[in-house]
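re: ur question from earlier - yeah i can do the single chain one, its not a big deal. heres the input i used so u can compare w yours
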Amino acid sequence: MSKLAKKNDLNTIATLLDNLLAKEIEYVPYKKDNTVYIHNFRIVKKTKFVYLVYRDKELISNCFYKKSAFAVVQRILNKQDFDDVINHDSCLEKNYNDSLFYLNTISNTDSSIKFNIASVRLDISKDQIARHAHAIDEAARWQ
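and the output i got, formated as tokens:
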């Protein structure tokens, strides 16, 4: 191979690498205080379980689970619908709150019937939490 051919191949590889890095760097998230910035989006942690997703100054979504907020941003950047993520997030929140109620009932009841019912419902809520969290995890994968 001549020096000219090697130089052209090297320039082609460098151009392809520059294009790839420019595309990847466009969506690199960075964190400052309680806010994560991705492109023109912000994910703001308001409380332990409240994540607000903004595009510029417009509120896009209010999420319970952190990965849901990232999945919403990822879906918008890929020009996809994110209603399923919001649905899974709200179901996850409902089952989490239900499980707190059942745990409280289990720890404070004197009735064996209430204890057994709350135990069964707690197991169901845990399964639902795992199912919805898995669905959100799948939606939050960067492509």
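Strands lie at 30-32, 35-38, 41-47, 50-55, 58-63. not sure if urs matches, ping me
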